[in-house]
Design a protein that fits this description.
With 135 residues, this protein is an alpha/beta fold. Strands 2-1-3-4-5 form a 5-stranded parallel sheet, sandwiched between helices. The protein starts with 14 loop residues before the first strand and ends with a helix. It has one domain: Response regulator (Rossmann fold). β3, α3 and β4 form a beta-alpha-beta unit. The protein contains 5 helices and 5 strands.
Length: 135
Amino acid sequence: PVGRRPVSGSDSARIRVLVAENHPSVRENLRYLIDAEEDLECVGVAKEGRSAVRLSQDLLPDVVVLDEDLPGAPGLEILARLVGALPSVGVVVYTLNTDVFEEARRLGAACVAKDASYEVLLRAIREAPSLASVR
């Protein structure tokens, strides 16, 4: 799709990530964590559901890290809207509410509990584009 870059080992082809998280410190920690990785780039942040969808459509990230508990709309509703509008975007649902994992996976998202290590989250971000390709 237009605006997407191929994923490879070069700096110019970093995985572009949008973070959708309502808690300011978590949002900033995720931005820092992602930008500290050579192959990842945080291209934007959203603090509520509608802006997550709008920014995803504007920025065309490779991956959206989606908090399930965003103001404005339930996370699974946002996930369904993202998958419907941008089927090539990988989504990682990042939440304390692991009860939503089964439905999120059914919609084609990777799932990571917020109490998991950052390594688990980073691996899910790197694998999310391939999940989108088989949706």
